[in-house]
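In keeping with the milestone schedule agreed at the kick-off meeting, the structural modelling team has produced records for the first pair of proteins. Each record is given below as a sequence line and a structure-token line. The laboratory manager (R.T.) confirmed that both were archived under the project's standard naming scheme.
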Amino acid sequence: MLLIHCPYCEQTLPELEFTYAGEAHIARPDVSGPVSDEEWRNFLFIRTNVKGPHYERWRHSHGCGRFFNAVRDTVSDRFLITYKAGEKRPELSDLPEKST
């Protein structure tokens, strides 16, 4: 079972408390002008599929109900860091070393 740290509640709880909400830091196209079908398609459907650290969005659905971001290693399934929504995206070089 995964243990996830909620940066708002300051608790580390089982994954059953949380809901995955997709890739983090996806920029919505500027809709003040025309948006091409390709730009809209990319926003809606195209996501990275990395092997290693991946920026994700999660929700503490059975707790405070707030969204937060996390960096999870897709190989080891280990959470490297969680941080509040709206905070600056951490650089991968600043994250803790992966455990073997």
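The second protein of the pair:
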Amino acid sequence: MATAYVLINCELGSEEAIISQLKAIAGVKEVHGTFGAYDILAKIESPTVEALREIITWKIRKIEKIRSTLTLMGIEGQS
């Protein structure tokens, strides 16, 4: 199982709408609003790294009002 954590910056006031959209995406396991440099943290799991990349590139990054993302890939065996 491939795991990634995506840190998301979004437009001011759009956090709740984006969190709702993220929760509807298959593979998104957790979503949290955050304080600090990023607005939202999402945990994504998928059977393969390629499928994970597809979720992040074609589903998450295409959500309107997301300004930027930073993806952290988990290392298998170090959990």
